[in-house]
Amino acid sequence: MSYDPPHPPPYPWQPAPPEPVRPHRTPPRAPLGHHSDLGVLRGAYRWQRRTATLTALGYFTLFLVLSAYAPHVMTRDLADGIPAGLLLALLQLPVTWLAIALYEYTARRHVDPLADRIRKEAELDARRGALR
Fold first, then answer.
1. Which one, 22, 46, 48, 80, has least CB within 10 Å?
2. How far apart are CA 85 and CA 74, in angstroms?
3. pLDDT in tens, 83-105
4. E strand or H helix at 77
5. Are 46 and 107 in contact (CB under 8 A)?
6. Rounded distance between C-alpha atoms, residue 132 and residue 125, angstroms
7. How far apart are CA 47 and CA 111, in angstroms?
8. Global confidence as pTM
9. Angle at 51 between CA 41 and CA 92, to 5 degrees
10. What SS3 state is found at 122?
11. Count of CB atoms within 10 A of residue 99's CB?
Protein backbone atom coordinates (compact mmCIF):
# COMPACT_ATOMS: atom_id res chain seq x y z
CA MET A 1 0.00 0.00 0.00
CA SER A 2 1.67 3.21 -1.12
CA TYR A 3 0.82 6.63 0.13
CA ASP A 4 0.22 9.39 -2.40
CA PRO A 5 0.10 12.93 -1.06
CA PRO A 6 -3.19 14.71 -1.81
CA HIS A 7 -3.20 16.66 -5.04
CA PRO A 8 -4.04 20.35 -4.88
CA PRO A 9 -7.60 21.16 -5.94
CA PRO A 10 -7.96 22.07 -9.62
CA TYR A 11 -9.84 25.27 -8.73
CA PRO A 12 -9.01 27.55 -5.83
CA TRP A 13 -12.62 27.65 -4.54
CA GLN A 14 -12.78 23.83 -4.10
CA PRO A 15 -11.92 22.42 -0.66
CA ALA A 16 -8.78 20.32 -0.29
CA PRO A 17 -9.39 16.55 -0.31
CA PRO A 18 -9.27 14.92 3.13
CA GLU A 19 -6.11 13.21 4.33
CA PRO A 20 -6.29 9.43 3.95
CA VAL A 21 -6.62 7.51 7.20
CA ARG A 22 -3.61 5.35 7.95
CA PRO A 23 -4.34 2.23 9.99
CA HIS A 24 -2.55 1.99 13.33
CA ARG A 25 -0.38 -1.10 13.36
CA THR A 26 1.26 -2.68 16.36
CA PRO A 27 4.69 -4.16 15.86
CA PRO A 28 4.56 -7.91 15.28
CA ARG A 29 5.25 -10.04 18.33
CA ALA A 30 7.33 -13.15 18.34
CA PRO A 31 5.26 -16.33 18.09
CA LEU A 32 4.52 -17.99 21.39
CA GLY A 33 6.59 -21.07 20.53
CA HIS A 34 9.75 -18.95 20.58
CA HIS A 35 8.83 -17.13 23.76
CA SER A 36 11.55 -17.02 26.41
CA ASP A 37 9.10 -18.04 29.13
CA LEU A 38 8.68 -21.43 27.46
CA GLY A 39 12.39 -22.03 27.93
CA VAL A 40 12.09 -21.06 31.58
CA LEU A 41 9.10 -23.39 31.95
CA ARG A 42 10.98 -26.26 30.34
CA GLY A 43 13.92 -25.66 32.68
CA ALA A 44 11.70 -25.56 35.77
CA TYR A 45 9.94 -28.75 34.72
CA ARG A 46 13.29 -30.45 34.00
CA TRP A 47 14.60 -29.44 37.44
CA GLN A 48 11.39 -30.74 39.02
CA ARG A 49 11.69 -34.13 37.32
CA ARG A 50 15.36 -34.48 38.19
CA THR A 51 14.83 -33.61 41.84
CA ALA A 52 12.02 -36.10 42.36
CA THR A 53 13.68 -38.83 40.30
CA LEU A 54 17.05 -38.49 41.99
CA THR A 55 15.39 -38.58 45.42
CA ALA A 56 13.66 -41.90 44.77
CA LEU A 57 16.28 -43.54 42.56
CA GLY A 58 19.17 -42.24 44.65
CA TYR A 59 17.87 -43.94 47.76
CA PHE A 60 17.09 -47.14 45.87
CA THR A 61 20.58 -47.15 44.33
CA LEU A 62 22.12 -46.59 47.76
CA PHE A 63 20.16 -49.57 49.07
CA LEU A 64 21.33 -51.76 46.17
CA VAL A 65 24.97 -50.71 46.54
CA LEU A 66 24.90 -51.39 50.27
CA SER A 67 23.27 -54.77 49.64
CA ALA A 68 25.90 -55.76 47.07
CA TYR A 69 29.10 -54.27 48.49
CA ALA A 70 28.48 -53.87 52.22
CA PRO A 71 26.60 -56.91 53.45
CA HIS A 72 28.13 -56.47 56.91
CA VAL A 73 26.26 -53.15 57.19
CA MET A 74 22.98 -54.64 55.98
CA THR A 75 23.12 -57.64 58.36
CA ARG A 76 23.99 -55.64 61.46
CA ASP A 77 21.21 -55.67 64.04
CA LEU A 78 19.94 -52.18 64.87
CA ALA A 79 16.97 -52.58 67.21
CA ASP A 80 15.52 -55.71 68.83
CA GLY A 81 17.16 -58.07 66.34
CA ILE A 82 15.93 -56.22 63.23
CA PRO A 83 18.68 -56.02 60.61
CA ALA A 84 19.62 -52.67 59.05
CA GLY A 85 18.81 -54.01 55.58
CA LEU A 86 15.20 -54.62 56.55
CA LEU A 87 14.84 -51.14 58.04
CA LEU A 88 16.40 -49.58 54.95
CA ALA A 89 14.04 -51.59 52.73
CA LEU A 90 11.04 -50.45 54.77
CA LEU A 91 12.21 -46.85 54.46
CA GLN A 92 11.85 -47.01 50.69
CA LEU A 93 8.13 -46.40 50.89
CA PRO A 94 8.45 -43.16 52.92
CA VAL A 95 11.27 -42.02 50.62
CA THR A 96 9.00 -42.61 47.61
CA TRP A 97 6.27 -40.58 49.32
CA LEU A 98 8.86 -37.87 49.95
CA ALA A 99 9.75 -37.84 46.25
CA ILE A 100 6.08 -37.50 45.32
CA ALA A 101 5.59 -34.71 47.86
CA LEU A 102 8.70 -32.94 46.56
CA TYR A 103 7.39 -33.24 43.01
CA GLU A 104 4.02 -31.75 44.02
CA TYR A 105 5.67 -28.96 46.01
CA THR A 106 7.95 -27.90 43.17
CA ALA A 107 5.03 -28.11 40.73
CA ARG A 108 2.89 -25.76 42.83
CA ARG A 109 5.75 -23.43 43.67
CA HIS A 110 7.68 -23.14 40.39
CA VAL A 111 6.12 -24.84 37.39
CA ASP A 112 2.39 -24.14 37.71
CA PRO A 113 2.71 -20.33 38.09
CA LEU A 114 4.89 -20.18 34.96
CA ALA A 115 2.46 -22.38 33.02
CA ASP A 116 -0.51 -20.25 34.14
CA ARG A 117 1.23 -17.05 33.05
CA ILE A 118 2.11 -18.50 29.64
CA ARG A 119 -1.45 -19.81 29.24
CA LYS A 120 -2.88 -16.34 29.96
CA GLU A 121 -0.48 -14.73 27.48
CA ALA A 122 -1.47 -17.30 24.85
CA GLU A 123 -5.15 -16.51 25.43
CA LEU A 124 -4.43 -12.79 25.04
CA ASP A 125 -2.48 -13.46 21.83
CA ALA A 126 -5.37 -15.54 20.51
CA ARG A 127 -7.85 -12.76 21.29
CA ARG A 128 -5.63 -10.18 19.62
CA GLY A 129 -5.32 -12.42 16.57
CA ALA A 130 -9.09 -12.83 16.39
CA LEU A 131 -9.61 -9.07 16.46
CA ARG A 132 -7.37 -8.49 13.46
1. 80
2. 4
3. 999 999 999 999 999 889 988 99
4. strand 77-79
5. no
6. 11
7. 10
8. 0.58
9. 145
10. helix
11. 19
